[in-house]
Amino acid sequence: MVTGGAGFIGSHIVDRLIREGCEVVVVDDLSSGSIDNLHGSEGSTLEFVKGDICDEEIVSEALRDIDVVFHAAAIVSVQRSMSDPGFVNRVNVQGTSTLLRRAAEAGVRRFVFSSSAAVYGKTVTLPVSEDAPLKPISPYGEGKRQAERLCLESSRDSGPAMAILRYFNVYGPRSSSGEYSGVIRKFAERLCARRPLVVYGDGTQVRDFVNVVDVVSANVFAATTRGGVGGVFNVGSGRCTTINELAELETQLMLGSGERARLEHMPARAGDIQGSCADISHIENVLGFRPGVTLEKGLAVYLDAEFRTLRA
Ligand SMILES: NC(=O)c1ccc[n+]([C@@H]2O[C@H](COP(=O)([O-])OP(=O)(O)OC[C@H]3O[C@@H](n4cnc5c(N)ncnc54)[C@H](O)[C@@H]3O)[C@@H](O)[C@H]2O)c1
Questions:
Q1: Ligand 1 centroid to residue 292 C-alpha, Å
Q2: Around Cβ 205, how many Cβ atoms within 10 Å?
Q3: Mean pLDDT of all residues in 155-161
Q4: pLDDT per residue over 128-146, tens digit each?
């Protein structure tokens, strides 16, 4: 089962599982995901259940005969968690709790939880390792921290074997568009419109951009290797990139190598983190994970796939 399988990351997990010959059930309420993201899997062994992970009946029914759950459904917007914390908590924490309880009853063997680097909050030491203190600064990050705890408790209380993956900034085809989309997509949209790139703060804040192909590999390693059991793992590229560097790179890839980024600075946003970059030695050592896609290569493929027509 892939919850949130019609979303950005979930649909890439589905693609990989189908390629590996798995039978897959997707549970998604399509609140931010789209059925179009699953069209590549038509005619395959895919069952789609439109429903809310908070709905006990739907979840129980869908969990029949499931071996492994990849739990990627969530409200992913930090900004929305500030404006509507109750709603985000209902899906991200209570929804996870429902799913865990029902997965334990259904005899699910493995559970891979999509957590977030947002659990770390304002980290002092970069790159950040998994044993750093968890001090989330947004309701979204706090919800992920609580959901992680529920996952580990469930696993200890005879629930499924657990792996927790803390994603950093994931990018790639099908990433969500609209108000809450990530910085890479927003920059690309502004470049297509020949408008300056909006940078919150001075642009020296660092991020770890990890390609969705690598995030999918981490999920598969977590679900299939012994080392995955009980583990908490950062999933990043291990490379720190400033927002200003990203702006230059995207400008060059989209407008040509001689072009410089035009920036429009805005005040830093509440809930945004100054520095976020993953120490990935744990996942490398324990799961054998290696990020395979460089930012230059991954961005070129992504921008070409999603913005080619806009650019023309
Ligand atoms: N994209 C990133 O950079 C990033 C970084 C860190 C963590 N994550 C985590 O990875 C997971 C996937 O994120 P994404 O970027 O693919 O987001 P997304 O919004 O594209 O996917 C989330 C999916 O969950 C579905 N969903 C939301 N609420 C639901 C509910 N109540 N019941 C059933 N389905 C529901 C949505 O319709 C959507 O298809 C999330 O848990 C997110 O917190 C993502």
A1: 23
A2: 18
A3: 93
A4: 999 999 999 999 999 999 9
Query: Which SS3 state, helix, strand or coil, does residue 196 take?
Result: coil
Contact 5 CB / ligand 1 (< 6 Å):
no
Is the pLDDT at 41 greater than 90? The verdict is no
Q: Select from 3.90.190.20, 3.40.50.720, 3.30.2010.10, 3.90.226.10 the CATH code of 2-170+210-237.
A: 3.40.50.720
Rounded distance from Cα 116 to ligand 1 centre (Å): 11
Fold of 183-206+239-284+286-311: UDP-galactose 4-epimerase; domain 1 (3.90.25)
**Tens digit of pLDDT for each residue in 164-178?**
999 999 999 999 776
pLDDT single digits (tens) 283-303? 999 999 999 999 999 999 999
For ligand 1, say whether the CB of 7 is within 6 Å of any of its atoms. Answer: yes
Mutational pocket test of ligand 1: of 32, 54, 76, 91, the residue with most ligand atoms within 8 Å of the beta carbon: 76
CA–centroid distance, 88 to ligand 1, in Å, is 11
Of all helices (H) and strands (E), which one includes residue 115? strand 110-116
- Domain ranges in the chain? 2-170+210-237, 183-206+239-284+286-311
Residue 177's pLDDT is 74
Chain centre distance of CA 107: 26
Catalytic, 180? Answer: no
pTM of the model: 0.96
pLDDT value, residue 190: 94
With b for 16 or more beta-carbon neighbours within 10 A and e for fewer, the 123-158 pattern comes to beebbbebebebebbbbbbbbbbbbbebbbebbeee
